UniProtKB/TrEMBL annotation, chain A:
GO molecular function, one term: metal ion binding
Stretches of the chain forming a coiled coil according to its record: none
Region (Disordered): 143-168
Gene Ontology cellular component list: plasma membrane
Family: Belongs to the CcmE/CycJ family.
Keywords from the UniProt entry: Cell membrane, Cytochrome c-type biogenesis, Heme, Iron, Membrane, Metal-binding, Signal-anchor, Transmembrane, Transmembrane helix
Protein source organism: Phenylobacterium deserti
Superkingdom of this protein's organism: Bacteria
UniProt main location, coarse: membrane
Extracellular topological segments: 35-168
Name this polypeptide is given: Cytochrome c-type biogenesis protein CcmE
Function comment: Heme chaperone required for the biogenesis of c-type cytochromes. Transiently binds heme delivered by CcmC and transfers the heme to apo-cytochromes in a process facilitated by CcmF and CcmH.
Binding site for heme: 128, 132
Record localization: Cell membrane; Membrane
TrEMBL record, chain B:
Domain Cytochrome c-type biogenesis protein CcmF C-terminal: from-to ranges: 315-643
KW ATP-binding (keyword) present: no
Pfam families per the UniProt record, alphabetical: CcmF_C, Cytochrom_C_asm
Top-rank taxon: Bacteria
Its job: Required for the biogenesis of c-type cytochromes. Possible subunit of a heme lyase.
BP term (GO), one: cytochrome complex assembly
Name of this protein: Heme lyase NrfEFG subunit NrfE
Location within or outside the cell: Cell inner membrane
UniProt feature coiled coil, ranges: none
Similarity section: Belongs to the CcmF/CycK/Ccl1/NrfE/CcsA family.
Keyword Lyase: yes
Membrane topology: Multi-pass membrane protein
């Protein structure tokens, strides 16, 4: 094979590149593909109104649980409204809610909008620590001027609770 | 009083670390053994100071001294002793103190055990370790002092988060930190090698035991954390590709790559630049992990104490330390020797491929973890990258690596024989494929991907055993000969075989659990039932239970299979008044290797009679998920006890030479 370089060093470098290139190409390809398809956007209800995510697309919906909106059914279903200052969305969730899920509390619901505009949550995230507010919710509320600062400095270890809806 | 002594000891440790840095550096520059020895003494003194500080904090936790702010925020007098002790590292401040304790401990150990190192190399290593100690101790003393007092002393503490009051999690941080911070010795060795301009077989032989120890500790730490998340959080899963999990997984992957590349550097003198690079990267990833976990820049489901101002400081520490290391690398690496040549098919090439795949897998995990930050900085949109991304990118790269694992050890150095390797492995491959086909045929529902994954797991095990058979000439030579060879195998070879088999066991568990797990959730009144997999669960009664620092509702759930009783599960839902928190105490019925995993959820009183949300998971072969990594860590320990790596042997060799 006369087109191969003559020096052994250069040949070795060529072999190394030949080994790295396909792995790198596959890794980059998979990464781009993965990042296109498996990221989920975070919206507050008013941002969701503006962005109009297609029904069935997995997103995260964050905001405050509207006071008086929580209805717990005995078949395990929970309905509540997530709101920011301008808009509100109805959320349906089947499963075990985090313990600090309360009216007025900031939460993030992971799931998708159905065709009828109701948000179908597969997970509801809220941290166990009552001083905790999910960061995205905090940022979004700050932008809307609805943020009054934290009651206390969060300095405790505070793992979250997460609940998965199992039967949907 | 003891608290003040602790605070003072911590300051002393900082001062001694500074002395360690200055004395050792001066010892290297002036080539003075006296100064270098003084530096080593300072390293030991820094460790003792830190140990005293740690003991003082632990004392404050055990005696529930709520005048210490950290204790008041994270402990409670009614907490059992184990969790009062574990509370020492349950908070941000305490865990940083543990980090510093590990750092100075490793520094002292390296200074004492490294007697065989060349003087210059050792002085630079001790100085670098001292520098790291100064940075992290200064951070602990000035930005997160665990000994800060409260002027108004509360009567009772706010308690450690009940989710963290668990035996696995009590010992998880010490292992994890031993792993994270163990990489600092490797980092310091790499810096020393770059300063001295010498990376040779002897250097790689010093790098390997430290990497092995850190990697094995990290394996245990991650597994304990995963096991804790599995049974304590009650989500039925064991890995969520959460930023906090990824933060500990990336140094593990880089450590695994380093373990393999250091072999090439040790045996063949090749890849020296790459090995040094990995050595720098391993600790940099540890520091990145510390930053990600503590700063709160990424939304995590296992969020730890978050504080943005501390995050900035940690980012500066990370940037400066890793930046200096890599700048030194860029400056000095071109001077390192290239080492021996090797053919495209050889053990060296197999190990290079292992490193390429591990590095690429780490890069995809890093990108997936940091992408939300990058995206938000660029476009202002908040997004999250979920498990599908990692399954899509990480899994294929790892699968490619796992296929190659059994072939590597059978290839000869320099120039290998692919046909010969195929000849030695075909039986193992056939058995593995047969097991995969059997799984495809027998396990319902049929899943091709799951069965392929199982075949891969079996392949790792049979392939590793084939290599053992090959080495001992089993079935070909007389039994006595095989026995002689088996007992004569170096511990390093046993370690490798164990680690690869452990990986196979883990892959089996991961594929079976992921592919065939089943779940069910329903609201049940007393006497209600639900089915999961082949099991029928009946909620018999719900009763109240009084714990040491909690009250609980305990469900009695009878599980039957085809009418035959299997077990009586007693999952609990606990309420901790100290932090007014509720947690679920999962009940796991162990069925051989598989788990029937039962969670008692919240009570709903809206209907005619009270109902409870009960979730149940059937997790087949889930025990292997935690047993496999245990075998891997054991492999690391066995390998660590190899004669070749024992430092005394190296010294005798040096003296003989």
């Amino acid at each position: 094979m006369s087109w191969l370089p003559k020096s052994r060093k250069a040949r070795r470098r060529l072999t190394l590149i030949a080994a790295i290139a396909p792995v790198l190409a596959i890794a980059v390809g998979l990464t781009l593909w993965g990042l296109r398809d498996s990221i989920s956007f975070f919206y507050t209800p008013s941002q969701a109104d503006a962005a109009q995510p297609p029904a069935g697309r997995s997103i995260q919906l964050g905001g405050l649980v509207a006071p008086g909106s929580v209805i717990k059914h005995s078949d395990g279903r929970v309905e509540f409204t997530v709101q920011d200052q301008k808009a509100a969305d109805k959320v349906v969730f089947q499963g075990d809610l985090p313990d600090l899920f309360r009216e007025g509390q900031g939460i993030v619901a992971v799931g998708s909008f159905r065709d009828d505009g109701v948000f179908h949550a597969k997970q509801v995230l809220a941290k166990h620590d009552e001083r905790y507010m999910p960061r995205e919710v905090q940022d979004a509320l700050k932008e809307q001027g609805e943020w009054y600062g934290e009651g206390a400095k969060p300095h405790e270890a505070a793992p979250a609770t997460r609940t998965d809806a199992s039967a949907t | 009083m003891i608290t003040e002594i602790g605070a003072f000891a911590l300051l002393l440790a900082l001062a001694f670390s500074l002395a360690q840095l200055v004395l050792s550096a001066a010892g290297r520059i002036r080539r003075s053994t006296v100064l270098a020895a003084a530096g080593e003494g300072a390293a030991l003194a820094a460790f003792i100071g830190n140990l005293l500080a740690f003991a003082a904090l632990m004392h404050a936790f055990i005696t529930s001294d709520f005048s210490v702010s950290n204790v008041a925020n994270n402990s409670h007098s009614e907490k059992p002793l184990l969790y009062r002790i574990a509370g020492t590292w349950g908070s941000h401040e305490g865990s940083m103190l543990l980090w510093c304790l590990a750092l100075t401990g490793f520094g002292a150990a390296a200074a004492i055990l490294g007697r065989t190192l060349p003087r210059g190399l050792k002085a630079v290593m001790v100085a670098t370790q001292g520098g790291l100690g100064v940075v992290f101790l200064a951070y602990t003393v000035f930005a997160s002092n665990p000994f800060a007092r409260l002027t108004a002393v509360p009567v009772e503490g706010r308690s450690l988060n009940p989710l963290l009051q668990d035996p696995a999690l009590a010992v998880h941080p010490p292992f994890l930190y031993a792993g994270y911070v163990g990489m600092s010795v490797v980092f310091s060795l790499a810096v020393a090698a770059l300063v001295e301009g010498r990376v040779d077989a002897a250097w790689a032989r010093w790098v390997r035991p430290w990497t092995l120890a850190a990697w094995a500790a990290l394996t245990v730490g991650i597994t304990l954390g995963s096991f804790w998340a599995y049974y304590e959080l009650g989500w039925g899963g064991w890995w969520f590709w959460d930023p906090v999990e990824n933060a500990s997984f990336m140094p593990w992957l880089i450590g695994a790559a380093l373990l393999h590349s250091a072999i090439v550097t040790e045996k063949r003198g090749a890849l020296s630049g790459w090995t040094v690079f990995l050595a720098l990267a391993a600790f940099s990833f540890s520091m990145l992990g510390a930053f990600l976990v503590r700063s709160g820049v990424l939304t995590s489901v296992h969020a730890f104490a978050v504080d943005p101002t501390r995050g900035v400081l940690l980012l500066i520490i990370l940037g400066v330390t890793a930046g200096l290391g890599f700048a030194l690398f860029a400056w000095r690496a071109p001077t390192l020797s290239q080492g021996g040549l090797f053919a495209p098919i050889s053990r060296e090439s197999a190990l290079v491929l292992n490193n390429i795949l591990l590095a690429a897998a780490t890069a995809t995990v890093l990108l997936g973890t940091l992408f939300p930050l990058i995206r938000e900085a660029a476009t202002g949109e908040a997004i999250s990258v979920g498990p599908p991304y990692f399954n899509l990118t990480f899994t294929p790269l790892m699968a490619a690596l796992l296929i190659l694992v059994p072939a590597g050890p059978l290839l000869a150095w320099k120039r290998g024989d692919a046909a010969g390797v195929a000849q030695r492995l075909w039986i193992a491959a056939l058995i593995a494929i047969g097991c995969g086909l059997l799984a495809f045929a027998l396990v319902s529902p049929r899943k091709a991907f799951g069965a392929a994954g199982l075949a891969l797991g079996f392949w790792l095990i049979t392939g590793s055993l084939a290599e053992l058979v090959e080495r001992t000439r089993a079935f070909r030579a007389p039994a006595a000969e095989t026995w002689r060879r088996l007992t004569g195998l170096p511990r390093g070879a046993w370690g490798m075989t164990l680690a690869h088999i452990g990986l196979g066991i883990f892959v089996l568990g991961a594929c079976f659990e992921t592919g065939w797990k089943q779940e069910a959730a329903e609201t049940l009144p007393i006497g209600g039932s639900l089915d999961v997999g082949a099991y029928h669960l009946v909620l018999e009664t719900i009763g109240g239970v009084e714990g040491p620092n909690y009250e609980a509702e305990r469900g009695i759930i009878r599980a039957t299979r085809d009418g035959a009783p299997v077990c009586t599960a007693t999952p609990e839902r606990r309420f901790y008044p100290a932090g007014s928190q509720t947690t679920s105490e999962v009940y796991i019925c162990y069925q051989g290797l598989s788990h029937l995993y039962i969670v008692l959820g919240e009570r709903r009183d809206t209907g005619p009679q009270p109902v409870w949300l009960v979730r149940a998971y059937w997790n087949p072969w889930a025990s292997l998920l935690f047993f496999g990594p245990g075998v891997m860590a054991l492999g690391g320990l066995v390998s660590l006890s190899d004669r070749r790596l024992r430092l005394g042997v190296a010294r005798r060799k040096v003296q003989a030479a």
